[in-house]
């Protein structure tokens, strides 16, 4: 994240999960994947993050392992999984936006039960860090976004979606929004939600979607774009930004 700030990104997208002792940590996967981290004490590899306390997570080296699918990834041996508050503290003074994905799997009863605690922890961290005016709450679980708007009607929310999967008939991901009220109209559904941003997978980001979203006053933020050709295509149809693993290369374009 510091490296991304150094190359000049306008925003950082990150994922947050809840530990067993209700601490908000920055980590993408629901489990400690063996390819991504190494034990330094007790072996917690394969364990769910929400089954471990922050103290237990602190023993995991999350910086030494690199993935072949990310050849430019640099090892940072000894780096630990940080809390959201620690990320903010480590980047104090950077005038960037934060796109915070509240990671909830609506098919998992444990995740559903934790959604309010996780969201409350996120809002507490952004308030304490003084960045609440530079934050989007970002989630596939639209119930989280609806709850965020109840807690703070001025807080922008970003509606993540995979067309045909999370945005689909009889979907459990849409909170109280009904797909049948907006068949094949992701922008309309996100507008009912009160979203400021609609964030589709890039395969689903069409000129029609961008036009419909802009007509409703919403920005469009597709993910995850690492191909310069796709980046150019999305720019041509008016997408407002992209989520990428290669910020320096995309900024150069």
Topology:
Blueprint: H1 2-7, E1 11-18, E2 24-26, E3 38-39, H2 54-57, E4 60-61, H3 84-90, E5 97-102, H4 109-129, E6 135-139, H5 142-151, E7 157-161, H6 186-193, E8 197-200, H7 207-215, E9 219-220, H8 228-236, H9 247-252
Parallel strand pairs: 1-5, 5-6, 6-7, 7-8, 8-9
Antiparallel strand pairs: 1-2, 3-4
What does this entry look like structurally?
This protein is α/β, with parallel strands linked by helices. It has one domain (about 1-30, about 80-250): Phosphatidylinositol (PI) phosphodiesterase (TIM Barrel). Helices cover about 30% and strands about 15% of the residues. It is built from 9 helices and 9 strands. It has helices spanning about 1-5, 55, 85-90, 110-130, 140-150, 185-195, 205-215, 230-235, 245-250; strands at about 10-20, 25, 40, 60, 95-100, 135-140, 155-160, 195-200, 220. The strands form 2 sheets. It has a 7-stranded mixed sheet. Helix 3 packs parallel to helix 4 and helix 6 (about 185-195) runs parallel beside helix 7. The longest helix has 21 residues, at about 110-130. It is globular and about 55 Å long. About 35% of the residues are buried. The model has no long low-confidence stretch (mean pLDDT about 95).
Order of helices and strands: HEEEHEHEHEHEHEHEHH
What is the assigned CATH homologous superfamily?
Phosphatidylinositol (PI) phosphodiesterase
The main pleated sheet reads as: 7 strands, mixed
Q: What share of residues are in beta strands?
A: 5-15%
| Helix vs. strand class | alpha/beta
Q: What is the CATH first-level class name?
A: Alpha Beta
Mean pLDDT: 97
Number of alpha- plus pi-helical segments: 9
CATH architecture: Alpha-Beta Barrel
């Amino acid at each position: 994240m510091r490296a991304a700030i150094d190359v000049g990104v306008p925003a950082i997208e990150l994922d947050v999960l809840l530990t067993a002792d209700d601490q908000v940590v920055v980590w993408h996967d629901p489990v400690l994947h063996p390819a991504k981290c190494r034990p330094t004490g007790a072996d917690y590899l394969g364990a769910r993050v929400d089954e471990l306390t922050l103290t237990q997570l602190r023993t995991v080296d999350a910086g030494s392992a690199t993935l072949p699918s990310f050849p430019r990834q640099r090892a940072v041996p000894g780096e630990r999984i940080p809390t959201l508050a620690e990320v903010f503290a480590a980047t104090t003074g950077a005038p960037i936006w934060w796109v915070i994905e509240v990671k909830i799997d609506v098919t998992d009863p444990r995740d559903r039960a934790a959604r309010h605690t996780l969201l409350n922890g996120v809002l507490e961290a952004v308030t304490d860090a003084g960045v609440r005016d530079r934050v989007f709450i970002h989630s596939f679980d639209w119930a989280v976004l609806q709850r965020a708007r109840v807690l703070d009607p001025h807080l922008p929310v970003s509606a993540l979606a995979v067309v045909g999967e999370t945005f689909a008939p009889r979907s459990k991901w849409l909170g109280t929004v009904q797909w049948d009220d907006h068949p094949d109209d992701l922008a309309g559904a996100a507008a009912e939600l009160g979203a400021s941003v609609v964030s589709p997978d890039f395969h689903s980001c069409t000129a029609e979607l961008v036009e419909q979203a802009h007509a409703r006053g919403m920005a469009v933020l597709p993910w995850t774009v690492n191909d310069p050709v796709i980046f150019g295509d999305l720019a041509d149809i008016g997408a407002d930004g992209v989520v990428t693993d290669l910020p320096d290369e995309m900024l150069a374009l």
